[in-house]
Design a protein that fits this description.
homodimer; alpha/beta; Rossmann fold
Chain lengths: 564, 564
């Protein structure tokens, strides 16, 4: 049978109560205990799950409804459970108060505002039926809003997002599980290395898995902005997605943007893609469930099919943007369109062949079918040569053994000012030169001296391991020291080379309407653990101990509003 | 003008002489010095490059031809260069003799054989015109042959390979730059971690780059077998490729095979693919230049387009084979076909959605369009559920916060003996449970206890980082300890799951005709540096100081042969 009682005027968040329910259910003589706030939605649930008792009619949204399922007919069980409940609630408030550097709390909205006047986000995880009201309050006070709660109507979502847009604000959610802004973990969030990849997602664990894979690949993120699962529907029209894209487009630290969502509404997809194309940054888009051909690229948009693939593409783009930044800093970015041709001088035949294939495909030019004199590609001014070809090795050692031939070819580029990018390999291991990096580095330095007015970017891949006699890492450092970019593999080298010979659209420099990315200060309303996590992570937060006005009685609430 | 002299009866390998040429060319008063053995091919080259002098007519293949290009008319320059040459040759033989543990050398073939009677490879880098004779000698003495040299006729290649095949031997090459067998570096080779991936390649730097990328991905190789660039032509018909496949198919340490070559002749390609399909191991095939759709799989053959992609696929397959080995050892391989269904219980909605997509594609089944009760996939007995769906969270905390719902669902599998694989996620970070791994591990242990006769494989992915409060590595260890396999990402998890529910062809157990993979002992003929490298790497080697018989005079050679 069901034993029941109501504990009046004691608001607690639902997660804390659920954990208490689990604990109390372990009590002997008891089958299961349900402990819930008496909100209208909860009452329906209590009835549906067979825990209903007439006394719950008297409970408001500020009262705790306790139902005990037990074979025992003895009503003393309610006393026992009541005592345990009090002890658990006590524990809860004590554990919340022991930290030296205490979490700031406020019982009223105004006092939360007073305690953190420059708060710029309100994180809302209260029951869905109360979300719209609190969100409006936040927006009216010029705060961005992140809504973790679900059960918010579509109409409310649209109105809130429209209001936010009109005021240069963003509403993340409803049902937004994850955001990580300027290192601040909002709701479900991970601790991530700082990097140059920004994430936008209409999916919580999508953002988390993407960010985790990026971290596993030794890269990092700037910000991750959640949208909520309905943002890209026809009804909402991607309002927050567009705001988020605008924010990251104008964030100088974000060099690559990664976007994850379920397949959007067709018209919204087009709006989003158009907005992406207007951004002078590479963007990886994963519309999970709409298959893209591997390597599909639409202008600056790279389509992915899985989260790990999206992460991998983002990390390759991240490398490329970093290399570009390094080249710019070192004054080695080629002068475009003056020096917009690529020259590849390879000692490895297969490396030359793969690079020729990659460039031919990216530049839409044809391979050289003859391979005469080791020429693998020779079209439109671009040329890839295999210096291990018989033509160069007749009576001479292979260029992996003796650098002379390649050194001569590199120095010959001094007079070929149309060449803006030089691609090379460095093969180490047994059989190869004792220190190929030093001779390659010297040749590149000489070349640059010989054409001081025509910067040339030099991109190398290294074949070999750290266990090799020459040591991959040591060889790599010698090349880096000489201003040679190291690509992780041939596709990355090809991608970088092609990106360097294309003129870039200048950044749009749209006005950055949001200050959110500079730093986050949070008012947390709802789940206490989110405030605790923010506090533990060193973020600035006030926990607004939200409770329904007038015990959740809507008639009374409306009366009260009219009185104010 | 050209000053010239001949140094009689002093054979040196071409690389040593080239390095000496470079050094002597730095002498004052000298433009360039050419130092070459007087082989017929070299003589043509000397003439073609403008270094010819009539005295070279007297030189044999055992004599060094020295040509000095200089503006000076004074013939004393030959004395100067002659002295420097002697010093350099002296240096060379001294530096070769200083090591405590000296390289073993032999001047005659028979004495090389006597010094290393159990040699099983002859590594040949002598001038091309002499290769066939020495290779035949090696094969007749039941040695495998690796031919680094080029300029061997196609006819000779075919004959040598046919002879090798008939005797259970392999000829790697001609023009084979790289092999790495049982840790022994043959010619251009890298020092690589030991692993479970075997490589076969008709391309030297292709093998090297593939192996390097595998090492960068923290994997390792068993053996790498070179074929030479012409093996897959219609004329040669892939004789050595088939031998190499047979060797690795029967090598128990090789769990994954990776094959790289230019696109083979169409008929040969079919022969190779058929041979690959008969091997009960996953094989990655990169026919560089013949484009494959991403993820193209032909039975056990995975087609790749670039070297780094081939390496990545090989490493994923390597993980999967290792996981399978671990499951077998732990008695957790599902009983197939009794337990051949997959169940996925996810806390992350997007993770469930991607897994459903991956399985639907791999198993050729349909997604569930309704997503009722969080069911993302429910077809043919396989089921993927998103436990974060409203159905499970109404009135209960999200399963990332409270494991109760998933624990119940896991325990319910006790009676579902058709389920052989359980897929789960583990999401850590702020907001999530303090120790989700422990509750998941406990549930899995309970489940296994409840169905002792029906082993179940459990595969988890982890979302989160090592910086997260729960620490990804610690959580991973807890899961591993409970016999849960950790996949690096969702595609790897899906791939493993599907591979576990399919019955495998038993290995063919062809007779292993070659003992080469057990350990390599080398007779090196030609470039001294290859012997030095072998020696330095700790391999067993005798350097056969090969020199052309009768000074390379073919008439005299034939006379001598008749006399024997």
């Amino acid at each position: 049978m069901i034993h029941a009682f109501v504990k009046k005027g004691c608001f607690q968040d639902s997660v804390s109560l659920m954990l208490i329910s689990r604990k109390l259910s372990d009590t002997p003589e008891v089958d299961e205990v349900s402990v819930m706030m008496g909100t209208p939605a909860n009452k329906l649930l209590i009835a549906a799950t067979g825990f209903w008792a007439p006394i719950f009619d008297t409970a408001t949204a500020n009262d705790i409804c306790v139902a005990i399922k037990s074979e025992s007919q003895n009503n003393l069980i309610t006393v026992k459970i009541g005592t345990e409940l009090d002890a658990a609630l006590n524990n809860l408030s004590e554990s919340q108060g022991t930290s030296k550097n205490r979490l700031q709390k406020a019982r009223r909205w105004q006092s939360a505002l007073d305690k953190l006047p420059d708060a710029n986000v309100v994180l809302i995880s209260i029951a869905g039926e109360y979300v719209a009201e609190l969100s409006n309050l936040a927006l009216d006070n010029h705060k961005n809003v992140m809504i973790f709660s679900d059960n918010v109507t579509l109409e409310d979502e649209i109105k809130l997002k429209q209001k936010a847009r009109a005021n240069g604000l963003i509403v993340m959610g409803p049902d937004c599980g994850t955001s990580m802004i300027a290192g601040t973990p909002l709701a479900f969030a991970n601790v991530l290395p700082h990097g140059n990849i920004g994430i936008i997602g209409a999916s919580g664990t999508g953002i988390q898995e993407l960010a985790s894979q990026i971290a596993l690949l030794d890269h990092g993120i700037t910000h991750a902005l959640g949208l909520g699962g309905r943002d890209l529907t026809a009804e909402v029209g991607g309002i927050s997605a567009l705001s988020a894209l605008n924010m990251l487009a104008n964030d100088p630290e974000t060099q690559v943007i990664t976007f994850v969502s379920k397949p959007p509404d067709a018209a919204v997809r087009q709006i989003i893609l158009t907005a992406m194309q207007a951004i002078a940054k590479p963007i990886v888009a994963l519309f999970l469930g709409s298959y893209s051909k591997d390597g599909d690229v639409d202008k600056n948009i790279y389509l992915a099919n899985t989260l790990d693939q999206a992460a991998r593409i983002a990390c390759q783009l991240s490398n490329i943007e970093r290399h570009r930044t390094d080249l710019l800093a070192a004054n080695q970015l080629p002068n475009i369109p003056l020096s917009n041709k690529i020259s590849g001088l390879y000692t490895g035949g297969t490396l030359a062949a793969e690079m020729a294939l990659l460039l031919a495909s990216k530049l839409k030019i044809k391979l050289d079918p003859q391979h005469d004199q080791g020429v693998m590609l020779n079209a439109d001014g671009h040329k890839i040569i295999d210096l291990g070809d018989d033509f160069y090795t007749m009576g001479k050692p292979h260029p992996m053994i003796d650098p002379t031939t390649r050194t001569q070819q590199i120095l010959a580029l001094a007079s070929q000012q149309q060449i803006g990018v030089l691609l090379v390999d460095l093969v180490i291991g047994y059989g190869a030169e004792a220190d190929p990096a030093s001779s390659l580095a010297a040749a590149v330095i000489d070349l640059r001296r010989a054409r001081p007015d025509y910067p040339i970017a030099v991109i190398a891949t290294i074949t070999g391991t750290v266990q090799d006699p020459q040591n991959r890492d040591l060889q790599q450092n010698i090349l880096k020291h000489a201003g040679i970019i190291i690509a992780h593999n041939l596709p990355e080298a090809a991608h970088l080379a092609v990106s360097l010979i294309n003129l870039r659209d200048p950044p749009l420099n749209l006005p950055q309407k949001s200050d959110l990315l500079k730093g986050v200060k949070v008012i947390n309303a709802g789940l206490r653990r989110f405030a605790d996590d923010l506090h533990a992570s060193g973020s600035t937060v006030v926990h607004y101990q939200w409770a329904p006005i007038a015990g959740g009685n809507l008639v009374l609430q409306n009366l009260l509003k009219k009185l104010v």
